[in-house]
Amino acid sequence: MAQSHEIDVLVIGSGPTGLTAANLLADSGLQVALIEKNPGSGDEPRAISATDETLRVMQHLGIMDELGPQMLMDTGARYFGLGGKVIADVRPGAPRLGQPGKSQFDQPIMEGLLYEAATLRQNLDLHYATAATKIQQFSDHVIVHATRTGEATTGFNGSKAADSGQDPYAVVEGQETALEFKAKWVLACDGGRSFTRRELGIGLQGSTQVERWIVVDLLDVPGNPEPFASFHCNGQRPAVVVPGVGGRRRYEFMLFDHEDGDAMITPESITKLVAPFQNTDVVTVRRAAVYTAHQRIADTYRKSRILLAGDAAHLMPPFAGQGLNAGIRDAVGAAWRLAAVIKGEANEMLIDDYETERRPHAAEMVKLSKRIGWVVMNTNPVITRVRDAVVTGTRIIPALNRWLTGMRFLKQPHYTTGTVTAPISGVPHLAQNFVGRMLPQPDLEVNGATVKLDELLSAGWNTIEVVAGFQLVFTNQEGDSVRAKDINRVFDTATGTVLLIRPDYYVAGIAPASQADQLLKALSAKATVLRTFGVAKQGTRG
Ligand SMILES: Cc1cc2nc3c(=O)[nH]c(=O)nc-3n(C[C@H](O)[C@H](O)[C@H](O)COP(=O)(O)OP(=O)(O)OC[C@H]3O[C@@H](n4cnc5c(N)ncnc54)[C@H](O)[C@@H]3O)c2cc1C
Question: Which one of 36, 189, 461, 507 is CB 3.0 to 4.6 Å from 17, fit for a cystine?
């Protein structure tokens, strides 16, 4: 007989997407289980570039205090063309979301911290060395069959395990146990080769990159890191170098058709590849792997009660540094909607909005990653010369130059369909720009103390009324209010309006302050909880 577990949501896969989603779902009070086929969290040389939005989510989950010191914050990227000349120096604009636009990190460290956070959530059960093997869908639940190998149900921190000599991917010895999970909903975060996606027969459109790359993580690199990643588009062997803190450094090199991946990954070959960039006597190779990137997107993100998220839903080359970041957006976008529907605060139209919002943006990121890859990987002597001339030529057109150097080609999500509503008439034109975008996170002042905006947002929906004199009034679902001063005048253009903030910190709509009711009504067909927004009115918080 299979061991059975009954929960609200089953998360499949404990990569960054699955761990983030599981933590968020648990925080919303649901009973959650996570299954992962490996014995612990990951330890592969993968993502290295995090966006402000991802870091804001990590802040929300309470791991930024530990993650921050292990990151090189606020970085840019420098592109070198033929002859090693700088053709572009790019850097995101001033932080808008309360975290730098781009920072360098180490994926296994983030995964390890997310794993540790997950172990602290009482209503989140972790099952490692446990692979999903079969899925059955019913009208009001899903049954996922899984096999656990060995006795361990909780895993270990992959990053730390490898430092101590343990292999996070070692096959767990022991007998096999059959498990059965009965869940109201399933969130499949089981990566690019997603078992769930295949089991559900969901197609994956796109292609596989022809070029293979080798990726190497070094430790003990001496000197202070410069705050930018360098892309060497030299027409010979394209390479990417990304600094980190504490002597960490990432190298990525393109392999040529005739080169054998296994031979190129030996310590001798790595030393040769790295030698043009730094002294190789003093460094330690922490991880090295050969990979082939894909540029693909799933046909749909939902089949009945199962949602796909992260690499299970989209795969992109790493050149724009967006794969993990898109996965974190998915995790957030799926988690708050599942929580709302399971708690009876919304109907399933809200779940449909998950794909409506997330899929087009991910598709755009896949395309962008492919384009940047083309720029970086080209070795054709004529094309590379033209490329360098075109890129440097943008310097004479200021608007184009700002678009390039300010990394505006990396479009932030701006949802115009989904769980958003058009501005109610009477809202000033500039203020309408808030809708469908993530709410800024400036510093505010409350009773003389400086606080980050997110500290004033309650779980669930919130409204922010922008009052003359740079005052903001935050109100939560229960009707509690708190007033703060917008010291940097970030919301100045929205004076006299009220913004409706979703549980994922996106702005769902905006209305003149006198018409806040209309705003709530516009979305209450989906998010039924808005029908009673603020009704409890429990007083003022500050
Ligand atoms: C070299 C490289 C550089 C990159 N750089 C960046 C970057 O700078 N920025 C960025 O944003 N992204 C980057 N990425 C992409 C990023 O690493 C991925 O997008 C990210 O890991 C996806 O996370 P995920 O949780 O969706 O999937 P994964 O991390 O793949 O996790 C999926 C998990 O599901 C588990 N699983 C699979 N099948 C089952 C099953 N049947 N049962 C139970 N568990 C299962 C797997 O074991 C795995 O642990 C890079 C990738 C590479 C390779």
Answer: 189
Beta-carbon contacts of residue 409 (< 8 Å; ≥ 6 apart): 368, 403
Tokens encoding 151: 């006795």
pLDDT at 540: 42
Domains of the chain: 3-71+105-204+298-368 (3.50.50.60), 430-532 (3.40.30)
Q: How many CB atoms lie within 10 A of CB 94?
A: 7
Distance, in Å, from the CA atom of 353 to the CA atom of 330, rounded to the nearest integer, reads: 12
Question: DSSP string covering 384-409, please?
Answer: HHHHHHHHHHGGGSHHHHHHHHTTTT
The alpha carbon of 327 and the centre of ligand 1 are apart by a number of angstroms equal to 9
pLDDT in tens, 278-296: 887 877 899 999 999 999 9
Could you identify the atom of ligand 1 that is nearest to the CA of residue 325? 11
389: its two tokens: 């001339």
DSSP 102-132: EEE--HHHHHHHHHHHHHH-TTEEEE-SEEE
> 492-503 burial, b for 16+ CB within 10 Å, e for fewer?
ebbbebbbbbbb
Query: Which ligand 1 atom is nearest residue 324's CA?
Result: 11
On whether the CB atoms of residues 109 and 246 are closer than 8 A, the answer is no
Alpha-carbon distances of 145 from 37, 191, 306, 308, 330, rounded to whole Å: 13, 18, 14, 18, 24
Task: Decide: 36 in ligand 1 pocket, CB within 6 A.
Answer: yes
* Contact yes or no for 514/420 (Cβ under 8 A): no
Q: Is 27 helix (H, G, I), strand (E, B) or coil?
A: helix
Give phi and psi for 524, each to the nearest 5. Answer: -75, -10
pLDDT at res. 163: 77
Interval 347-357: pLDDT, tens: 999 999 999 99
Q: Which of 14, 211, 324 to mutate to test the pocket of ligand 1 (most atoms within 8 A of CB)?
A: 324
Find out whether 436 and 414 touch, Cβ atoms under 8 Å. Answer: yes
Closest atom, ligand 1, to C-alpha of 309: 26
* Helix/strand/coil for 306: strand
Contacts of residue 525, defined as CB under 8 A and 6 or more positions apart, other chains included, come to 347, 349
ipTM over 0.90: yes
